[in-house]
Amino acid sequence: MVAEAGATGEPGDPLAARREVETLREEVNHHLHRYFVLDDPELPDSEYDALYDRLVALEAAHPELVTPDSPTQRVGAAPASTFVEVRHDTPMLSLDKCTSIEELAAWETRCRRLLDEGDEPDYFCEPKIDGVAVSLVYRDARLVRAATRGDGTTGEDITANVRTIRAVPLKLAGRDVPPAVEVRGEVYMPLSGFRRFNEWATAQGERTIVNPRNGAAGSLRQLDPAVTATRPLSMFCYSIGEIGERASHESRHSAVMEALRGWGLRVNPWGRRQASLEDCAKYVNELLAVRDGLDYAIDGAVIKVDDFSLRDKLGQVTRKPRWAIAYKYPAEEASTVVEDVDFQVGRTGAITPVAKLAPVFVGGVTVSNATLHNMDEVQRLDLHVGDTVFVHRAGDVIPQVTKVVLSKRPSDARAVHLPSHCPVCGSAIERFEDEVVARCNGGLKCQAQRKERLRHFASRHALDIEGLGDKLIDQLLGEGLVDNPADLYRLTAEQLGGLERMGAKSADNLLAALDTSKRTTFARFIHALGIREVGETTAATVAARFRTLDRLLEAELETLQEVEDVGPVVAARIVEFFADEANRGLARELHETIGIAWEVPAEVPGESLPLRGQTWVLTGTLEAMSRNDAKARLTGLGAKVASSVSKNTTVVVAGPGAGSKRTRAEELGIEILDEEEFLARLAG
Question: Whole domain around residue 486: which residue ranges?
Answer without folding.
Answer: 446-517
